[in-house]
Amino acid sequence: MSGKRVCVGAIAGAYGVRGEVRLKSFCADAAAIARYGPLWCDKTARSFSVTITGSVKGGFAARLSGVSSREQAECLRGTLLFADRATLPDLSDDEFYQSDLIGLEAVDTDGTTLGFVHAAVDYGAGDILEVRLENSTDTILLPFTLATVPTVDLEAGRIIVDPPDGLMPDNAKEN
């Protein structure tokens, strides 16, 4: 999977008998997912153009190029769909695509490297950064807030973090 692609949705299963799928969009403007095509499959090098045909609970009914039967649509259940980064809208200075944060070095306010951003997730209560500690398999979860992550410098490939007291393991700076 290219680092220049961003996950924009997932196929939740088949819809109807003519090859349509139930599509869950991860885009801020959910219907915009069809404009970012072609969308690339996470499991193969296959790509799809997307036509939204209606709304369904939790997403859209959509037609994907090359998918013409319920069986083909059902085989795509669980497939993540990625758009080329260049097709996505530009963001304001204080917004980031989660994929842009993955791999950034995490340093504390003293300049000490803590580790690297391993994942960026949102479980419903706000964005969380999972930082894998340097020279360790241990991770910490940091709220992605201005107080905890005051600086994101994509050009330098790093974030500056100011973790709340008690969040860092005692041996984190020893690793």
Shape: elongated
Instruction: Kindly estimate the percentage of residues that lie in beta strands according to DSSP.
Output: 35-45%
Low-confidence stretches: none
Q: What Rg do the Cα atoms give?
A: 19 Å
- The overall average pLDDT, rounded, is 89
What fold name goes in the CATH topology slot of the largest domain? Elongation Factor Tu (Ef-tu), domain 3
CATH architecture of the largest domain: Beta Barrel
Q: Main beta sheet, described?
A: 7 strands, antiparallel
Q: Give the number of helices.
A: 2
Order of strands in the sheet with most strands: 4-3-7-1-2-6-5
CATH superfamily of the largest domain: RimM
CATH class designation of the largest domain: Mainly Beta
Order of helices and strands: EEEEEEHEHEEEEEE
The percentage helix is: under 10%
From the N-terminal CA to the C-terminal CA, the straight-line distance is 31 Å
Number of strands: 13
How many distinct domains?
2
- Overall SS class: mainly beta
Give a written overview of the molecule.
There is one protein chain. This protein is mostly beta strands and 175 residues long. It folds into two domains: 5-86, RimM (Elongation Factor Tu (Ef-tu), domain 3); 100-161, SH3 type barrels (Roll). It has two helices and 13 strands; from the N terminus they run ββββββαβαββββββ. The protein has a seven-stranded antiparallel beta sheet with strand order 4-3-7-1-2-6-5. The chain has a six-stranded mixed beta sheet with strand order 11-10-9-8-13-12. A hairpin with a 4-residue loop joins strand 8 and strand 9. The longest helix has 6 residues, at 70-75. It is elongated and about 60 Å long. The chain starts with a strand and ends in a 14-residue tail after the last strand.
